[in-house]
Sequence to fold (228 residues):
Amino acid sequence: DGGITQSPKYLFRKEGQNVTLSCEQNLNHDAMYWYRQDPGQGLRLIYYSQIVNDFQKGDIAEGYSVSREKKESFPLTVTSAQKNPTAFYLCASSIGQKAGELFFGEGSRLTVL
Amino acid sequence: AQSVTQLDSHVSVSEGTPVLLRCNYSSSYSPSLFWYVQHPNKGLQLLLKYTSAATLVKGINGFEAEFKKSETSFHLTKPSAHMSDAAEYFCVVSRWNTGGFKTIFGAGTRLFVKA
Fold:
């Protein structure tokens, strides 16, 4: 079945460590996105990519980095520069530029100890 | 500028009674509007979408929403709630902007369904 796979589902990290969240899709979608979700808030866009080898900052990119070396993959690195990294992270994809219609993965919950 | 406001952070209904989740939007141009549902610790799933066709949009699981331009609203309804409807619901507005679509999520409405 086609879909988006995020891993790991749960991740614990010590302060000062970088961590990378994986996102893989087999939907053949051009565009991919990373969102952060905090309790009581809507989703906030971290980074997005519309084509391979290209990506743009979203609304809260500071302390995060991404790469898009393959169409299927869009990993997110949460760096030690991110001041409040504990959150639920959601990866999504869309067909070309119809960004409003998004397909989501199951999410990764990061906890910084 | 565009924005989306979900008027209730929590809604509680009894099983078998109607559901109403309210959403108002602000957009300078004709937007696309969406409702997504999220169950605990899961990703979001598209319920329905409005893209300037019929103003009454039917979605999955018996949900529907009506686009009212004069009221700038896109409220989500269901005639009879089921226990499995308990989840968080997000209203989303999206429109074309330079460089691509701009998508804004509402803060979400948590729906509780009582037996």
Summary: The mean pLDDT of chain A is 92.
